[in-house]
Backbone:
């Protein structure tokens, strides 16, 4: 299992609209790709950055599904974000692996 994390730092004036758009449009569109098994949105409370920081996290079962998402779906979905909130956010994307506990 892998975790695809998108951290966004938004201008305060865009944060409320972005959150609503994420809940109503973007996250459902990402999940409709059927590449991810779950998702969650988090707000960073102690961010050192100006603006409002959120993390959108998506759990994916395999690197193959992640690569398929990046190749087929991500360009369109990221373009929608870029057009809607142009010059009002910065995004950082990371892929992480879950580490099982040791006995």
Residues:
């Amino acid at each position: 299992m892998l975790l695809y994390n998108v951290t966004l730092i938004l201008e305060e004036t865009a944060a409320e609209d972005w959150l609503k758009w994420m809940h109503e449009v973007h996250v459902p569109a990402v999940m409709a790709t059927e590449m991810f098994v779950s998702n969650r949105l988090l707000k960073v409370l102690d961010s050192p950055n100006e603006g409002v920081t959120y993390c959108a996290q998506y759990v994916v079962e395999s690197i193959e599904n992640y690569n398929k998402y990046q190749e087929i779906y991500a360009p369109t979905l990221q373009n929608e974000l870029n057009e809607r909130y142009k010059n009002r956010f910065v995004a950082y994307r990371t892929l992480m692996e879950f580490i099982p506990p040791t006995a």
The two ends are 19 Å apart (CA to CA). The chain has two helices and four strands. Helices lie at 12-32, 63-84. Residues 1-8+60-98 form one domain.
